[in-house]
Amino acid sequence: MIRITLHSKDGQITGFECLGHAGFAQAGQDIVCAAVSILTTTCVNALETVAGEKPQVQASSGRMVMALPGGGGHDAQIILQAMRQGLRDLKDAYSDYLLLNEQ
Fold first, then answer.
1. DSSP secondary structure string, 19-73?
2. Can you list the domains of the chain with their CATH numbers?
3. What pTM does this model have?
4. Strands 12-19 and 63-67
5. Do residues 47 and 53 touch, judged by C-beta distance below 8 A?
6. Distances (CA, A) of 9 to 31, 43, 97, 98
7. What is the spatial distance between Cα 23 and Cα 79, in angstroms, rounded to a whole number?
8. 8-state DSSP, 103
9. What are the Cα distances from residue 79, in Å, to 6, 51, 73, 86?
């Protein structure tokens, strides 16, 4: 199961932690892992290239941690909220493989 924690402060998303593997299918064919990877990686890349932010990122196999102290600007929050919506939708469709915690 993938465990994702979204961190917020004063109504703004300030980061996330994503741990584990879904176990939906074999490695290389797991659509849940692929979807989470695409959502989180695109979010981090868009924070840099679209919003002009510099998120702090740590990534390794089965783990990604991103921190954006202060939550960034308006564009950053739109990007983070779009990721959150995608993760919520994915959790609704594959709740046996994804746990989403919002703090």
1. ES---SSSTTT-HHHHHHHHHHHHHHHHHHHTS----EEEEETTEEEEE-GGG--
2. 2-101 (3.30.70.1490)
3. 0.93
4. antiparallel
5. yes
6. 31, 18, 27, 23
7. 27
8. -
9. 13, 8, 10, 11
Walk along the chain (103 residues) and give the pLDDT tens digit of each residue. 999 999 999 999 999 999 999 999 988 899 999 999 999 999 999 999 999 999 999 999 889 999 998 889 999 999 999 999 999 999 999 999 999 999 8
Q: Is residue 99 within 8 Å of 19, Cβ to Cβ? A: no
Q: Which amino acid appears at position 24 of this protein? A: F
Residue type, 38: I
